[in-house]
Every structure is written in structure tokens, then in C-alpha cells.
Design a protein that fits this description.
With about 475 residues, the protein is α/β, with parallel strands linked by helices. It has 3 domains: about 230 residues, FAD/NAD(P)-binding domain, CATH 3.50.50; about 100 residues; about 90 residues, no CATH class. About 40% of the residues lie in helices and about 25% in strands. The chain contains 15 helices and 19 strands. Strand 14 and strand 15 form a beta hairpin. It is globular and about 65 Å long. About 40% of the residues are buried. Bound molecules: flavin-adenine dinucleotide. The site of flavin-adenine dinucleotide has 33 residues, from helix 1, strand 3, strand 9, helix 9 and helix 10.
């Protein structure tokens, strides 16, 4: 590819700033336009998730651009889920039976700022803030912008335009409204929305509850989660229906009702949140949705990446990781011998879309799992068994969660197919009595024998799935 071409990136969020950095490192001329002010100078966190779970696929991308050593100090390891029941009892459920497998809590602003610093340090990367893209003329490689400071509109051409402008992408809207080619687009909202709250640091600056876990108060039809921040606080997120159930976002309208709701369902959390009412009435309630679309590109002129191409609900903690992985996968193709952007974009979408569709579906599954199943006895038995497999036979077994979260060397689709087959195998075998309970987790011979049975049943299910799929075609 010709390095003298200018690549225009719309959106300097997590994906856009990483992409700018990588393309800049490769020697392309990169020009980035971001709607918001520079987050390194102005606090713009309101309304967006403050911290995120960052894991192996994201780490792989940071290693690609050589900055993982700078990201690491921003991370708080979370070794498992701390489950809080309605009585206030807690149980730590590790994410994996392997010690080196954990996820990290990271501040969106800190990570984005680091990526912007690194990208901007390159002479061939320019970033313009307060520039909103209003539409893209994808046939003529030209984007239209509104510059807030001057209240002025202008347009800018580039050889290649990449939209990393998030779930409400202006480039995607231009594809849709342009009606110049067959563009498939779906946006599915959950009936639940989310609101961010907080647990402030203790008076001595420490953490008010266990630091190294993702806390979950799962209550079947709604849930609360909390992730730690470096300053000793936790960012707490309430996921709740807009209109169903005794308590919902539409009817939590008075301080009395909010307090009654929290004291009934989240009593131990409420004790840590004297600031609840301030947060609740100050912070917005936002919707949660899945966006799927195709194609992601128009000829060799424009391309969608990150949430702009595939926004997902946050329950697998993978939206950012998947957007970073987009950049890793895109980067790999730049090493191949493509002579034009159109073939590269086509190859990218062909290879990648099956994986982003898979993580979108897995994220919806996990919504139900986190709300309810984590409290369910058979689910816990399955989890205990998988943990024992992972601990005793680390090379032979990885749970679905581990395949998705900790194995950056396989795609999401492969992780989904194998993970779902394993889940089905174990749950069926537990339900049918093919795996004896109580589980003999300390007996290695029993474990090895059971693992072999699970593996055989998993292969059987995968084979059945393959046959069913071939018959459909
Ligand atoms: P964004 O981060 O949305 O960035 C888009 C950028 O484009 C923004 O800077 C925006 O200002 C800019 N922009 C938008 N429109 C325009 C325009 N017209 N012109 C110019 N600029 C524009 N992911 C995880 O991996 N782990 C998690 O734990 C996790 N938790 C989440 C929790 C919640 C509640 C939510 C909502 C999401 C969560 N995610 C998580 C998902 C993650 O936030 C996204 O997948 C990620 O931010 C996608 O990055 P992006 O750069 O594609 O989009």
C-alpha cells in the first residue's frame, strides 16, 4: 500500500486512537477527527462507562504497538467474580483454575489518553478534536465536518476513510441513508438499560470492599456490578429493565423508592454507598444494544471498525477487546501482499465478521448467566468441575469463558462453538447423572476419567452441529 496516501480516521475513542497509532507506526499519513474535546484536558466521562474489563485480546493489541508495559500500571487485576447474595453472603468464583488467567479493570479515560499520547507523538499522525463528522460521501472519498469552535462546516478528502466513531457511527449512517448499495443493518435493544453509580474510597483512601474482583449482585431479572478503580473507588453499574418488574428505571423516581429498592435487594452494597441518591439522580440511564451490519466497507474507499461495525452489549467485557482485536487483525493483513484497499477490506470483513457476530451473541448469553445462573446450584457444580479441570489439566481444558477471554489465539467463533458444546455436555451429564455427584474434585483419577467423558461428549456434540449445519446448506 502506498504510504503517501492519507488515511482519515473518524473518532479518536479506544479503537480509533489505537488504529491511528498503528497506522502511524507503519508510516502512513494519518489524520484523525474527533467529535469531543480532548479527554486529556476536559473531563468528558459523563454518560460513558468509566472503567472496563481489559483482557488478553486487548493485551495482544497493546503488545503489537509496544505499550503493554505502560498499560499495566493502569490495571487492577480481577481474579474472579465476587458473588453477593441477597443476605449479603459473598463467594469468590475465580475466572479460571489457572493462576495466570485473570481480567483487569482499567479506566477508559486513562487508556484512551495513553493511546492518544502515543499516536500524537508520531510526526505523521494529526488529531483534531471538537470536529464532528456529519456525513461521509463514500463514493468521492470525502467527509463532512462541523467544527464546534468556529461553528463552521467544511469537508475533507482522503484516499481512505475509516469510521471508528462508535455505536452511532456517522459513516455507517451514510451507508444506510445513501442507499447506493445493499446495506444490511440491525440494531437490537435490550429491555434493560444501565446507570453508573459509585462506591467512594474509604476514609484512609483504601478500598471499601475486596479490591481484586468483579463484584456481582445478580438478582435474576436485574443486577448490580462493581469494578475497582486505582483511586480506591469502585464504579458500580445497575442493569435494570426500563418498565418491567416491581422496580424499574421508569418507576424509580423518588429517593424513597430508590432507597427501598437498594435496601431490599442490595443491602450490603447500599451500606457502602452513602452517595447513592446523588449518583442515581445525577447520572443518566442509557440503553444497551447490539449493532450488526454489512458490508463494513465501500469499495476500497471507506471501512467501519470497532463499535461502528459491531456494537455489543457489555456482559462479556469484550466490546473494547474486540475493537482492539479488529486492529490486530487488520494489521496482519497489511503484511500480506494486497495491492489495493478493496481486496484488503473484503478479506478483513470475510475473516472477521463471523467472530464479531459470535461475541455479540455470547454477550447476550452472558447477560442471562450473570443475572441468574451464577446463583444456580447446577451452574456452580459445572463451574467447580471446570475449575478443577483447568487447574489439574491446564493443557487439556479451558472453559467457554476462558476460551473467549484468555485465548487470544483463537477467534471468538471457534471459542463460542467449542465453549457451548462443552457447556451442553457438562450440564447434560450432570442432569442425567452421567457425572456422579457429589463431585470428587480432589480425586485426580476421577477427574481425569470425567474429563475424558466430557471431551468425548463435546466432540460428539460438535460433530452433530457440523452435520446439522451441512444439511442446512
Ligand atoms: P467508542 O469508544 O464509542 O469511540 C468512538 C469515538 O468516536 C468517541 O470518541 C466519539 O466521541 C467519537 N465520535 C462519535 N461520533 C463521531 C462523529 N460523528 N464524528 C467524530 N467523532 C465521533 N468493553 C470491554 O472490552 N470491556 C468492558 O468491561 C466493557 N464495559 C462496557 C460497559 C458499558 C456500560 C458499555 C456501554 C460498554 C462497555 N464496553 C466494554 C464496550 C466498549 O465501551 C466499546 O466496545 C468500546 O468503547 C468501542 O470502542 P470504539 O472506539 O469502537 O468506540
Amino acid at each position: 500500500m502506498n504510504k503517501n496516501q492519507t488515511i482519515q480516521i473518524i473518532g479518536a475513542g479506544l479503537c480509533g486512537s489505537l488504529l491511528a497509532l498503528r497506522l502511524g507506526q507503519r508510516g502512513f499519513k494519518v489524520e484523525v477527527f474527533e467529535k469531543r474535546p480532548d479527554l486529556r484536558k476536559v473531563d468528558i466521562s459523563a454518560g460513558r462507562s468509566i472503567n472496563l474489563a481489559f483482557s488478553n485480546r486487548g493485551i495482544k493489541a497493546m503488545n503489537m504497538v509496544g505499550i503493554q508495559h505502560k498499560v499495566e500500571p493502569l490495571c487492577i487485576p480481577m481474579h474472579g467474580r465476587m458473588l453477593h447474595d441477597i443476605e449479603g453472603n459473598t463467594l469468590l468464583s475465580p475466572y479460571s483454575g489457572k493462576e495466570n488467567e485473570y481480567i483487569n479493570s482499567i479506566s477508559r479515560t486513562d487508556l484512551n489518553a495513553l493511546l492518544l499520547n502515543e499516536a500524537e507523538a508520531l510526526n505523521n499522525v494529526t488529531i483534531h478534536f471538537n470536529h464532528k463528522c456529519t456525513s461521509v460521501d463514500f463514493e468521492n472519498n470525502r467527509s463532512h465536518f462541523y467544527k464546534y469552535e468556529d461553528k463552521a462546516e467544511f469537508s475533507k478528502p482522503a484516499e481512505v476513510i475509516i469510521g471508528t466513531d462508535g455505536a452511532g457511527s456517522a459513516l455507517r449512517k451514510s451507508y444506510y441513508l445513501g442507499k447506493k448499495f445493499l446495506f444490511s443493518f440491525s440494531q437490537d435493544y435490550l429491555t434493560h438499560g444501565y446507570k453508573e453509580l459509585s462506591i467512594l474510597p474509604a476514609e484512609n483512601g483504601g478500598f471499601k470492599t475486596f479490591k481484586n474482583a468483579l463484584h456481582i449482585w445478580g438478582r435474576d431479572s436485574f443486577m448490580l456490578i462493581a469494578l475497582p478503580n486505582l483511586d480506591g473507588s469502585f464504579t458500580v453499574t445497575l442493569f435494570l429493565s426500563y418498565e418491567d418488574g416491581e422496580y424499574n428505571f421508569n418507576n424509580l423516581t423518588t429517593p424513597e423508592r430508590v432507597t427501598a429498592f437498594f435496601s431490599t435487594y442490595f443491602k450490603d452494597a447500599l451500606e457502602l454507598m452513602p452517595n447513592l441518591l446523588d449518583d442515581f439522580f445525577k447520572n443518566p440511564t442509557s440503553p444497551l444494544g447490539t449493532v450488526k451490519c454489512s458490508p463494513w466497507h465501500y469499495k476500497g474507499n471507506t471501512l467501519l471498525l470497532g463499535d461502528a461495525a459491531h456494537a455489543i452489549v457489555p456482559f462479556y467485557g469484550q466490546g473494547m477487546n474486540a475493537s482492539f482485536e479488529d486492529v490486530t487483525e487488520f494489521d496482519k493483513l497489511l503484511d500480506e501482499n494486497f495491492t489495493d484497499w478493496e481486496s484488503l477490506f473484503k478479506a478483513f470483513e470475510t475473516g472477521r465478521k463471523k467472530d464479531t457476530d459470535a461475541i455479540a451473541d455470547l454477550a447476550i448469553d452472558n447477560f442471562h448467566e450473570m443475572k441468574g445462573h451464577v446463583n444456580n446450584a447446577i451452574f456452580r457444580e459445572k463451574r467447580n468441575l471446570e475449575m478443577a479441570f483447568e487447574k489439574n489439566f491446564p493443557k487439556s481444558y479451558a472453559s467457554k469463558y476462558a476460551l473467549v477471554t484468555f485465548n487470544e489465539n483463537i477467534g471468538y467463533r471457534e471459542a463460542m462453538l467449542r465453549g457451548r458444546a462443552q457447556d451442553k455436555a457438562i450440564l447434560n451429564m450432570l442432569a442425567d447423572g452421567d457425572i456422579e455427584t457429589p463431585l470428587k474434585l480432589d480425586n485426580k483419577t476421577w477427574l481425569e476419567h470425567t474429563l475424558k467423558q466430557v471431551q468425548a461428549e463435546t466432540e460428539h456434540i460438535l460433530e452433530e452441529d457440523r452435520i446439522a449445519k451441512n444439511m442446512q446448506h
